[in-house]
Amino acid sequence: MSKNTAKKIINDPLKCADELFEGLVLAYDGKARRVGKRSIVMNDLRPDAPALLIGGGAGHEPIYHGLVGKGMGDGAAVGDIFAAPPPDIVLEATQAVNRGKGVLYLYGNYAGDIMNFDIGAEDAEDAGITVKTVIINDDVCSAPPNEKHKRRGVGGLVPIVKLAGAAATQVETLDELARIAQKAVDATRTVGVSTKPGSIPATGAPTFELADDVIGLGMGIHGEKGVGLIPMCTADELAVKMLDLLFGDDLPLSEGDEIVFFVNSLGSTHMMELLIMLRAARPILDARGIKIHQTIVDSIVTCQEMAGVSFSITKLDAELKALWDLPCESVGYTKL
Predict the structure, then answer these.
(1) For 124-155, what is each residue's pLDDT tens digit?
(2) Are 147 and 139 in contact (CB under 8 A)?
(3) Start and end of every DhaK domain (predicted)?
(4) Of 37, 104, 272, 318, whose CB neighbour count within 10 A is largest?
(5) Half-sphere CA count of 4, side-chain side, radius 13 A
(6) What is the mean predicted confidence (pLDDT) over 94-104?
(7) What is the CB-side half-sphere exposure of residue 87 using CA atoms within 13 A?
(8) Residues of the chain by 3-state class (helix, strand, coil), percent to 5
(9) 39 with 29: CB under 8 angstroms?
(10) Structural contact between residues 201 and 218, judged by C-beta atoms closer than 8 angstroms
(11) Which residues does the annotation mark as catalytic?
(12) Which tens digit of pLDDT belongs to each residue from 236-273?
């Protein structure tokens, strides 16, 4: 094995997506079931209600398929490692979560996901199921504010799915669920940095190259290009740079505003580092008079053994705050 090849405790590198999916279903302890090739659906679904279907490529666990549960996604369509779920898997998941009030698709802004979910939506419509789509595009570093439609979906998907999942337990129409999901997307921004790449299990090769003395500022969860490379620096210095990018975006944050603040590890960054980054970021937020309604510090949006951290801010109003405070439970994120 080459020194540049990642060591992973697996069986067949080409079967990782299927085998991790089988393990995921077991991790739900009977609260969710497998459907078809690679879809997971909650067993206890609110009857006669619009459904929330999430999904995306495997390899970023616990997202998306680990965010299925009470007050979260009703089901998920799962792709291969770093690949969008194919249309037939999207369709099987859509049919499984549908309870007669339509299905909302909620997923990240990547070309493969958009294409396959759109085809799945067409197939679902042919089968008599009404589908609406909301696309997550919270990454401020992947496009300027006037081109928000080009931005990637990254760490902000966690609070967005939580808010949409809460709404799915309350609303009666698909239009209302789509409205709230889009509102959550519009209220959420993320910036991420990377210090080391992850790898593709099939090859063990890194997804990108990054010198030891630099940090990739704004890199995506697959190693997509960000706003540039900066010299390796301290946590205090890095927190300032990251928050400057968030404050410089088109989401106005004023004194007295309340937010959910999510500090996320991209895979191998330890809790020690996340907490040090939180320590660095919190005084900056406090100095602006921004109120933290809840802090999340966890590893939820990942890219294998990729090292790095992302900050996500979700601005709450009265409606979103009430939805946030509802409990949720899933393998990837639980709020009591």
Answers:
(1) 999 999 999 999 999 999 999 999 999 999 99
(2) no
(3) 12-333
(4) 104
(5) 8
(6) 98
(7) 11
(8) 35, 25, 40
(9) no
(10) no
(11) 60, 222
(12) 999 999 999 999 989 999 999 999 999 999 999 999 99
What are the structural domain ranges in the chain? 15-173, 188-335
What SS3 class is residue 290? coil
Residue 292, amino acid:
I
Phi, psi (deg, nearest 5) at residue 155: -60, -25
The hierarchical CATH code for the domain 188-335 is 3.30.1180.20
Rg of the chain on CA atoms, in Å = 19
How sure is the predictor about 4, in pLDDT bands with cuts at 50, 70 and 90? low
pLDDT of 1 > 50? The answer is: no
Say which DSSP state 50 is in: -
Task: Kindly list the distances between the CA atom of residue 166 and the CA atoms of 65, 76, 296, 323, in Å, as whole numbers in the listed order.
Answer: 17, 16, 17, 6
Residues 6+ apart with CB under 8 A from 199: 5, 6, 205, 206, 207, 304, 305
pTM of the model: 0.97
Smallest Cα–Cα separation from 77: which of 45, 31, 108? 108
Distance CA 142, CA 267 (A): 20
Query: Is 163:180 a contact under the CB 8 Å cutoff?
Result: yes
* Token pair listed for 8: 């992973």
Is the CATH code 3.40.50.10440 the one for domain 15-173?
A: yes
Contact criterion met (CB below 8 Å) for 189 and 249: yes
